[in-house]
């Protein structure tokens, strides 16, 4: 029997809100001459289940190519300036890894940023797959990422166990849509959830999985 744990990245494994905020505000200033937004506003906007981020961030109805390109160019350098692993995350990952649990990442961020940040924080090697939104047709809550990862492991639901860990309702819904376990991480970007399994510290994941 395999045990597979798939993690969201931003707000679950790492706190990246400072650099995301800096890059969003850079685009606002350079392309739109708009004043800066606060970290809390940006994190709340990202975590909303239904939202129009271009409207909230840049006051445009759609995500303009110029804004996307400038954000990605800026964030490519910015993304490793301030991110950090949440307390207890590295120890939790190491414990799962030592116990033979298969680990992967499913993030709505572009794969290149996820790889860069996780390598910078010296945990990338513990993951078998790091899948960003650019690797699938539809991002979470669509289950495409989870299915891609499960297929890599030749997952058999009759004998294997799999969980998705995330700080967002989109993570939980993607797990439900893929018919695997869902664990809500309450230490990250979202402290409150109405989900059936909520953990307040990474070490609690060990009790569930091991």
TrEMBL record:
One of its GO terms (cellular component) is cytosol. The keyword Hydrolase applies. GO terms for molecular function: phosphoglycolate phosphatase activity. GO terms for biological process: DNA repair. Keywords: Hydrolase. It is an enzyme of class 3 (hydrolase). Pathway: Organic acid metabolism; glycolate biosynthesis; glycolate from 2-phosphoglycolate: step 1/1. Pfam families: HAD_2. NCBIfam families: HAD-SF-IA-v1. This is phosphoglycolate phosphatase. The lineage of its organism: Bacteria, Pseudomonadati, Campylobacterota, Epsilonproteobacteria, Campylobacterales.
């Amino acid at each position: 029997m395999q045990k597979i744990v798939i993690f969201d990245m931003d707000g679950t494994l790492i706190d990246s809100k400072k650099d995301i905020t800096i890059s969003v505000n850079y685009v606002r200033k350079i392309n739109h001459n708009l004043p800066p937004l606060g970290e809390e506003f940006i994190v709340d906007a990202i975590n909303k289940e239904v939202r129009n981020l271009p409207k909230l961030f840049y006051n445009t109805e759609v995500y303009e190519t110029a804004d996307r390109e400038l954000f990605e160019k800026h964030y490519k350098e910015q993304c490793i300036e301030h991110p950090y692993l949440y307390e207890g995350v590295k120890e939790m990952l190491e414990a799962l890894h030592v116990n033979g649990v298969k680990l992967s990442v499913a993030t709505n961020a572009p794969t290149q940023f996820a790889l860069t940040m996780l390598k910078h924080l010296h945990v990338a090697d513990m993951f078998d797959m790091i899948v960003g939104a650019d690797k699938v047709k539809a991002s979470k809550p669509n289950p495409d990422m989870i299915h891609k990862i499960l297929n890599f492991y030749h997952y058999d639901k009759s004998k294997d166990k799999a969980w998705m860990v995330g700080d967002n309702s989109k993570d939980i819904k993607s797990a439900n849509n893929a018919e695997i376990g869902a664990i809500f991480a309450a230490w990250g970007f979202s402290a409150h959830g109405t989900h059936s399994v909520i953990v307040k510290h990474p070490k609690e994941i060990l009790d569930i999985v091991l």
